[in-house]
Each structure stands twice: as structure tokens, then as C-alpha cells.
């Protein structure tokens, strides 16, 4: 800023300005209360904070008129002295409204203080220039607050996702997630895979932009070479696969494993545990789809030593077939042993081929697995093997 035109203000005018600073500040607050309904609704302590900033600004204006080279320092000080959480309850748009009202009050009251017409013009110009400095200081202050909040939110988000992966106590998890605006009752699904980039900011942008396009809340964390994403919302069969496919595009090359959808974020550790188990085992299924559900990786997970996968195979397949009537277990065994040849299976069982067809249909209805499908046949075989081994050890 170059030399200014008001350096010739008389000492008497500057003294009158100092004496009138309290009247200027209180007049400004009164005008704000009259013209801004949202300001009237603020609690008393918050209005007092605004008054403090206004008083500091008025004092800074008078000091600036004495030495205009201090402009930036003095105007920044007005916002630096405000409570640290002020930007949370007064938005930048509302701050601009406050500054506008203050400038109008200054323009109306300052001419009374000037000694003559020349000084009135100088004071009017000074108010406009100082108002510009205040606007820049406000924008800088809010930008710094937003940046600090963003950094804190990113750290908190990483803590939440890390807690989900570790299976932390649900109380602390819920409170942290609530601080980020996550709906406690929202369903949650965990996806894991490789990050798209080595730059965390780019990864965050890619994941968030894709989640925004499908209108889903999301939490994420890059843990070394692994990206963990917690996706909010229901994953019904019809829409779910499309949503998951779009989110998988935010991951880098390699498999993307999807854990089961759970009722709320407090149970998200179950989804994360299954997804991570699937990520370790997916190498055993080179042609697995992308994304692939952890439930579809039960055979590989069981072979890799995951007890949860073994239990699910038993509960979903082995036990229902064991407890079913009509020779379903024997039919599945015979069908798999004959390599899926229907007639050979029927001969071994001494039944009609239509009986085998009927029994296999019942197996599909009971377990969700079709013995005629190569992948489902593998799942059935591993499930029956795991079930027999567990039974031999007396586990069920």
C-alpha cells in the first residue's frame, strides 16, 4: 500500500476518534441487532465475542490512522483475538454481513468527528480502505480455520477406520464417528484393496468424489499399501453390485474385497475382518471378479486358516445338509465324486436321474449353491470337508 491521503488529519480529530471508539463499537453492535435476525438469536456470550472483535477493530482503525503501515498487523489482530471456535458459529457469509454493517455505521458517524470537509473526505476514504483490509483478514482467518478443521477431521477419520480394523470398543467409535456427522444407524460395508496413488490427497479425492456421485457417506484410511473404505448405506442385491463396482474404480490395480453389510458402524469391525481375510486369501482365486465379496471367498479363506470362514461354511452349508432329510448330503457327495455326471451319480445311488435333479435343486434352495456350477461345486466340496474335519474334532 502506498502513501495515503489522510496522514494530515489533525491531532484533535484523532483524539476525538479515540474518545468516540466506544460509541462507534456499541453503535455498530446495536445496528447489527436491529438489522440481522440471526445475530439477535446468538447467545449472550457469542454476541459479547463479536463486540470484542468490533472494539479491537475500532481501536485498530484509530491506530492505523496514526500509522497506516500497521494495517495488516492490526486488522489481523482483530480476528486473532476472537475465540478459536468463533468460525464454527459465525459463517464467513455472516462475517461479511457484520463487516458491511460496521462500515455503514462508520461512514455515518465519522463525518461528525471530522474538523472540516477535507477531513470528512479523508475519513470516508480511510473507512473504505480499512474495510478492505478487514475483509482480507477475515478471509485469511476463515481459510486457516477451515484448513485446521480439515486436518483434524482427516486425523479423526483415520482413527475411526483404524479402530474399525482393530475392533475397538463401540462406545469410542460411535462418538468419534458422530463428530464427523456419520449416522449411527446407517448400515456400513467395508471395502479393502490397493490405493490408486501413493499421494494420500489424491486417494482421498478419488474416493470421496465417487462416493458423492452415488450419494453415499464414506470414511477411509490409507494404511501403508492398503486402502480401507467404509461405505454407508444399504447394499441390496439389485443396486448393491452397481454401487460397489463404482466404488471399486477408486482403488488401484489388484483385487478389491467387500465385507458383509452390517447394521451400523459399531459392527463394522465384522465387515472389516471378513474383508481383510478375503484380501489375504483372494490370491487363491486368480479369476475372482472385481470387486469380490468376502462371502464368495469362503473356500480360500478356510484353506488359509481363517476360523471364521470355516464356521460360516459349516453353518451355511455343511450343517444344513447334514441335518436335512432325503439323502441330500449323500447326493452332493456322489455328484461331486462322479465329476458332475448326472447319470453316473444316479446309478451310484440306485435312484432315477430325476431324483438326483430334484435333490440338487433342494441343495441349491438350502445352501444357495448350485452343484452344476464349477465354482459352487468347489464351495460345496470344501464346506463338506471342513465340516467333517470339525466334526471329527468334536467342534460340532
Automatic annotation (TrEMBL):
Superkingdom to which the source organism belongs: Bacteria
Domain PucR C-terminal helix-turn-helix per the UniProt entry, residue ranges: 328-385
GO molecular function terms attached to this record: DNA binding
Keyword RNA-binding annotated: no
Keywords, ordered alphabetically: DNA-binding
Every CdaR GGDEF-like domain range: 167-281
Family per similarity comment: Belongs to the CdaR family.
PANTHER family in the cross-refs: CARBOHYDRATE DIACID REGULATOR, PUCR FAMILY TRANSCRIPTIONAL REGULATOR
Name of the protein this chain belongs to: DNA-binding PucR family transcriptional regulator
The organism of origin for this protein: Kutzneria buriramensis
